[in-house]
Structure formats: structure tokens, C-alpha cells
Amino acid sequence: MFKKFTNGCVTIVNRWLPDPFLFAIILTIVTFVGSMVGTGLGPFELVEAWGNSKGFWGLLSFSMQMALVLVLGSAMASAPACKRALGAIASCAKNKRSAIVITTFVSTICCWLNWGFGLIAAALLAKEIAKRVRDVDYPLLIASAYSGFVIWHAGLSGSIPLQMGAEGGTKILDVVYFAPTSETIFHPCNLGMVLVILLFMPFVNYAMHPDAEHTITVNPEVLVEEEERTYTVDTPAEKLEHSRILWAITMALGLVYIVRYFILKGFNLDLNIVNMIFMFIGLLLHGNLRKYVDAIGDAASGAAGILLQFPWYAGIMGLMVATNPETGVSLASIIANFFTNISNNVTFPVLTFLSAGIINFFVPSGGGQWAVQAPIVMPAATEMAIDYGRSAMAIAWGDQWTNMIQPFWALPALGVAGLKARDIMGYLVIVTIFTGIVACGGFLIWGMFF
């Protein structure tokens, strides 16, 4: 029965899911019509909200941060030391079950540490495993590699908890809100939900493995590796590029800053320091400035989808928050207020999580999600005397939850794997259902006992 349901999801997605960029355009049209009907704004007013500096171009700074998370994480994952580690892990996979379980487990841990690193490292691990276990279903293996991304916003690179924990907090509607990472990322309930997913999702994924007749094995051409670059060090310029002295000075500069940061500010992470850490870990692992520059160049292509689609999702965000000046109503407020108005101090985070999951279809960005929903959720949390950390994490979990069936963030992993979004999304419907149940239960416990 379970596999029949899974096969049905796979069939429907393969038939109906368009390319992610077309998906963004379709969502733009749906949001435009929904905003016009829900807010009473005219088409020209909504076109302005979509295309202005607060709409289409409203996430340029955040887009750069997100692109760097992906590129720096990818460059680190491509270092020979990381690849050797992935090869050693892949050698532990002896059959289909261990292939899926190991891939999911490692992906979840890596995405908790850093989502950009996790996305690429898990895809690379899946390819290494596919070389060794040739009868594993390749689309399910890549779906398992991507499934760990479902906990990224509950981890060390989660943009919402990092903004809440930043020095001075974060300002929303002229009010400053602050919650240290001990009340968000490292809260026992958040860690508990992550642990449940880490331990059980690998076996949920394996339960979906199709029978031999329906198994799609990897195309051998996908597994062909590019030859490692060779370098000549003859000219003064080339000697400078490969200089160990310059590399050591660069490493020392970054190390001093990072150590000093934690001495002065404690263990409060934000996106900038996370990117700084992973840049210098990447430099350390590559051991050479020229090699690191080339690794960044190779990794940058994975950010193409972000660069193309982020403005469109920023435009969707502009439509979602476009407000009728007479009524003060926006489409985002209609959705969020509906869930807020039917909740109490126990159910509020659960319903916030569900509403965030819906809004994430239209704004698949942690920063964009925060911009849309925080002005409604955080003031409501103040009125209902609900911890800011719990409220913020409800938005964060909703944002990461429906990423499983929103193809935007799967693009880098799919690029590594040589697959299309429709190849894996059917399996990820099951992951979405499972993690949704875990999150709802976790937030109810958080509300009742903490």
C-alpha cells in the first residue's frame, strides 16, 4: 500500500511538474491574481509592487549571502580531502538499503551544519555510492541526498535563527526582537525534532525503494569524473598564485578574525560569520590560493538557478506583501492572520508552521519568508506572551518543510546528479508528509512543556 502511494506520487509529479523557472512564473501569475482578488488592488498597482526595488530587486543583498553560502559550501565539498572522506563513507554502502540509509543520514548531518555544503556534499556522496551499488534506484538515491535539506533552517546556517541571534536583534515594524541561538537552534525541542528526523527518515526513504522492475539505475555517463587540473608554476605570476607564504598570510588573517569574533561575541552565529568560516575552511582544505579560486569558479555555476530565480521570488514576495492603503490588507496577511486568529498559545506555533509552509511555495527563501511573515507573527507572539525563539523557529520550520516539494533549492543537487526536478519530487512528497508530522508534534510538545 505504501509503495503504491509512493509510485502514484512519482507518476503524478513526473507528468505535471514543470521546470523550476516555469514554476516560478506560474506562481507569479497565481499570486498576482490572488493579490488582486484578496486585496482589491488594481493590476497597475500590483505590477509596481512586483517590479520595484522592494519587489523584484528587494532581495539582492540576501541573494548574495545565499549564493555565497552555496558557492563556498560547494568549493569546500570539492576539496580533495572532502572527496576522500566522501569516498570512505561511500565504501560503507554494500547494498540498496545501506546506500539509501547512509546517504540520508550524512545529508541530514551536513545540511544541519551548513545547507550549501550539505546540498553538494550529499549529491557527491550519492554519486560515489552509485558507483559501488549499481542496483540502487538512482532518483531515490538523489532524493535521499536532498531530503536532509529539510532540517537546514533548524541548523547552524538557518537564516531566521541567525538573524534573531544577531547582535542587536532584528527590527520588525520599528520593534527589535532578539532570541539567542540557545532559544532557537540549540533549544532542546528543536534539537529533538532534528534528532527524530535524523534517526527515522533514512528508513522512511528506504521503504520507498521500488522493486527491481521499476528501479531506475544510474546512467554510467553521469559518473564520469573530470580529470584533476594540473598546474605549471613557471612565471612570476604563477609562482605568486601558488605561493605558500601568501596562502599562510591569508589563512592567518581569517583565523585571527574568526577567533576574535567568538571571543568578543560568544557563540552567536549569523550568515556573515558562517560564510567566513566556510571560506577559510575551504582555503585550508585546498591548501593553495590558485586551486581555491578555480574551485570557486566551478562552484559558481551551481548558483545560476539562484541568480535567475531569486528576483522572481522577490517579485512574488512583493505581490504577497502589497497592501491596500485603505484596508491595510495584503495576501500574506490574509493567510497568516487566518492561522493566527484561530490559535492559542499552544497551537500558535503549529499553525504558524503550517501557514509558513503554504507561504513558502510562493517565497522559497528564509529571508523572504521572514520579511513576509515576521511582521504578523512576532507582534502576535508578544501579545500572546509566546517566546520569540519558538515563534521564529515555527516560521523557519515551515520554510524548510515545503522546500521538499518546491523545486527551487534542489537545483544545485540536480545539477551535480544530472537529473531533473520531476525525477525526485514524487519521493519527496512522502518526506514532506513524514517531516510535517514530526514538526507538528514537536511544536505541540514545545508549547505544552517548555
Notes on the protein architecture:
The chain has 21 helices and two strands. By secondary structure, the protein is mostly helical. It has a two-stranded antiparallel sheet. It has one domain. Helices cover 69% and strands 1% of the residues. The chain is globular, with a radius of gyration of 22 Å. Helix 6 runs antiparallel to helix 10, helix 12 packs antiparallel against helix 13 and helix 16 runs antiparallel to helix 17. A hairpin with a 2-residue loop joins strand 1 and strand 2. The mean pLDDT is 86.
Features:
mainly alpha, globular, 69% helix, two-stranded antiparallel ribbon, 450 residues
Q: Roughly how much helix do the residues carry, as a percent range?
A: 55-70%
Strand order of the largest sheet: 1-2
Mean pLDDT: 86
User: Structural class per helix/strand content?
Assistant: mainly alpha
Secondary structure: number of strands: 2
Count of the separate structural domains: 1
Write a concise synopsis of the structure shown.
The chain is mainly alpha-helical and 450 residues long. The chain is 69% helix and 1% strand.
Task: Spell out the blueprint of helices and strands.
Blueprint lengths: L1 H15 L3 H20 L3 H9 L8 H18 L2 H11 L5 H18 L1 H18 L5 H10 L11 H6 L5 E3 L2 E3 L10 H20 L28 H6 L2 H22 L5 H16 L2 H12 L3 H18 L9 H11 L6 H13 L5 H18 L4 H14 L9 H7 L3 H29 L1
Antiparallel strand pairs: 1-2
Helix pairs in contact: 1-21, 2-15, 3-15, 4-7, 4-13, 4-14, 4-15, 5-7, 6-7, 6-8, 6-10, 7-8, 7-20, 8-21, 10-21, 12-13, 15-18, 16-17, 16-18, 17-18, 17-19, 17-21, 18-19, 19-21
